Amino acid sequence: MAPPAGYVNVRRDVTDQFYRYRMPILLTKIEGKGNGIKTVIPNMADVSRALNRPSSYPTKFFGCELGAQATFNDDTERYIVNGAHEANRLRDLLDSFIDKFVLCASCKNPETELIITKDEFIIRDCKACGQRSNVDMRHKLTTFIVKNPPKSKKAGKGRKAVAGADSIAGQPGGGKVEGEDDESDDELTKKIEAGAAQVMSEEQAQALIAQREKEDDWSIDTSKEAVAARVQSLDSKLQNSLVLEDDDEEGGGPYETFGEWVKEQREGEGVTDADIYKKAEEMGIAKKHKSLVVLVQAIFTEKIVEEIAGHVPLFGKMTTSEKHQKSLLGGIERFVGEIHPDLIPSIPKILMAFYQADILEEEVLTQWGTHVSKKYVAKDVSKKVRKASEPFIKWLAEADSDEESDDE
Asked: CA 140, CA 147: separation in Å to the nearest integer?
């Protein structure tokens, strides 16, 4: 039996006419002109239902891959990617999304649900073969998924997020998502806490075990004498910038020590983002917004524009509120304003990278870009940084204005 008109196989590389996993052909419509031109995807909701994923995920994926702003409204089922993009290009990107976030890594069937562990890793749980495969957390979309999980269901100690209840098109018995019993969820949590080896390949599991064996070496001497010795060896400019304001009620000590540790480990090329977060947790500052001021200055080099993408999961995990975002911006302001003033012209690219990764939000960026502050740097330096950010802030305002005009 031939597939219905207007439908294609979920895996477009499969030519079997009896392949039961179907989805509507992705449709596009170009609207607007000039700087306000945009691509509307009128049937994104239907396509997403066939993939058993929230519609915002593939829409956001398109934005990440195309370097364009993506907007979505589930109530009106309106999904937009700024710019003019051909339908075939978006269909190819949809294939990539399906491969990365839908298909089982083992059997390549789309009968998967997304699980977000309490450690904020994303796993594809296959109902066809039982395999659990972890998603590549280096992709920008993973930050968005963690912050906007699918329809969730808590069980045991871990947090489990499952995709929407709509069944995969053509899948018998669909519509209801089967959950695991309490015992199996508890067991899953224990395994995840032990290293999540059951969801990794053998090579990844071995690498994780090797990393865990180094944990005993993570701690450093934090006595006053040891800290003083390390402070003396720091570059004077960086040392001054790592110190928080004098009226900090929590004291600059732990943050300063954290920044020194990150810088030392970075220069030795022996630290991962997991190591850094582990250290922040050990010091009790992983959830503190002021840790971000120090982290920006300690983890990046003059190649910050290229380096941001590699640290998106870490900053996504540590930036959890508006206050965190403001501290992150404060760290960026110090980094380019005092440590690397030659990078001030690159501030739009830096802000764009964090914005597209869903770490910095439009409202926070707009407020920051239009209000000079001397909280983190001298007032004249703050003016220079914000002056350099004007092209990006203007772009945000124009994109928002175009969207409002379109709604009207």
From this structure: 12
